Amino acid sequence: MYYRSGVYKYISGADFGRYTVKNIGWGVENSKVPYWLVANLWNTDWGSDGFFKILRGSDDCGIESKISAGLPAQLTVF
């Protein structure tokens, strides 16, 4: 995936696998394009300092349907 700026929108092509990213926020670009703000796990040389925006509301790349999360738990030490 080649990305530098703007809101990524899937156009066409084969799905080439799965990848883990971290959704950290959301917003609207140019007052009309809703997006998820996502942290990539590579490094800050990729994308926009390691982050990218992906279209919100269209489930591009499964960003809305294939999501999982964890809840913090208190560690009990005996």
UniProtKB/TrEMBL annotation:
| The protein's name in its UniProt record | Peptidase C1A papain C-terminal domain-containing protein
Any GO BP: proteolysis
Residue limits of the Peptidase C1A papain C-terminal domain? 2-70
> Which organism was this protein described from?
Macrosiphum euphorbiae
Which Pfam family, just one, is annotated for this protein? Peptidase_C1
Q: Which GO terms describe its molecular function?
A: cysteine-type peptidase activity
